[in-house]
Amino acid sequence: MRIHLSNVFVDDQDKALCFYTDVLGFVKKTEVPVGSDRWLTVVSPEDPEGTELLLEPDGHPAVKPYKQALVEDGIPAAAFAVDDVPTEFERLRGLGVRFTQEPLEMGPVTTAVLDDTCGNLIQIVHHK
């Protein structure tokens, strides 16, 4: 068994697609109309057949309070592996990305947390 799909709830699929592709560097894999929304996934360009991230609309009544509670408590909705957190932090900050946590070393792990502009905090992480 392996993870095939994960999701983040987003408040605007178009804005999310732009952020996750143009800023974070993922590529669109699937886009299928589902009523007024879409089944919209992105993948890492380094692993196009790997785990897909579903940019799922946050229209369900339980989702907005859940997202708000996570953000208020500083809890990331997802974590993405990078080769070098400080370098990626500087690249993304140069693109105007807002971080809620600058790079922080915790033993063999370095993390930083960013705002995805769609209602989520996202952690970038590197394990030494």
CATH fold-level name: 2,3-Dihydroxybiphenyl 1,2-Dioxygenase, domain 1
CATH class value? Alpha Beta
Total beta-strand segments: 8
Residue-averaged pLDDT: 97
Helix content: 10-25%
Tally of individual helices? 3
User: What structural class do the secondary elements suggest?
Assistant: alpha/beta
Instruction: Output the helix-strand order.
Output: EHEEEHEHEEE
| Outline | globular
Number of domains: 1
Instruction: Give, in spatial order, the strands making up the sheet with the most strands.
Output: 1-4-3-2
Spans of at least 5 consecutive residues whose pLDDT stays below 50 are none
CATH superfamily heading: 2,3-Dihydroxybiphenyl 1,2-Dioxygenase, domain 1
Beta-strand portion reads 35-45%
Largest sheet: 4 strands, mixed
Oligomeric state of this protein:
single chain
Could you provide a short overview of the structure?
The chain has 128 residues and is of the alpha/beta class. Helices cover 24% and strands 41% of the residues.
Layout of helices and strands:
Blueprint: E1 5-10, H1 13-23, E2 27-34, E3 37-43, E4 52-57, H2 63-72, E5 78-81, H3 85-94, E6 99-106, E7 109-115, E8 121-127
Parallel strand pairs: 1-4, 5-8
Antiparallel strand pairs: 2-3, 3-4, 6-7, 7-8
Can you offer a commentary on this structure?
The protein is α/β, with parallel strands linked by helices and 128 residues long. The protein is 24% helix and 41% strand. The chain has helices at residues 13-23, 63-72, 85-94, and strands spanning 5-10, 27-34, 37-43, 52-57, 78-81, 99-106, 109-115, 121-127. The strands form two sheets. Strands 1-4-3-2 form a four-stranded mixed beta sheet, with helices on one face. It has a four-stranded mixed beta sheet with strand order 5-8-7-6. It starts with a strand and ends with a strand.
